[in-house]
Fold this sequence. Notes:
The protein has eight helices and no strands. With 123 residues, it is an all-alpha fold. α4 runs parallel beside α6. The longest helix has 10 residues, at 13-22. It is globular.
Amino acid sequence: MTDLHEAAAVGDAQTVEYLLLSGESDADGEDWDWGKRTPLHVAAAAGHLRCVEKLLEHGADGEMRMAGGWTPAHCAAEHGSVEILQALVENGISVTKKDNTGDMPKRVAQIYGHEECVKFLER
Length: 123
């Protein structure tokens, strides 16, 4: 895991921004040891909105796929974060992509019982 992945995982938006501004970190860097997750997948999965926003501000690709075909929207739906799903939509990122088994983020939210996410994704 890179320093950027670690900062995204713990919700340290200040360090995320520093690493991106320094040019030492790639906003779309994949962690091959952890299912090809990008820092955006990590931040979305942990529910860290400020980190998600910083990564998107610095050009992170919100539609990159990790192992299994999950996008950051799938990760946000699993966590139950309407705010992150909303941030993705506001940045022009699709929240309706299917993973490798055909499930969209809405189905992930249903599986985990996140009704607010389901309602948001139905709009």
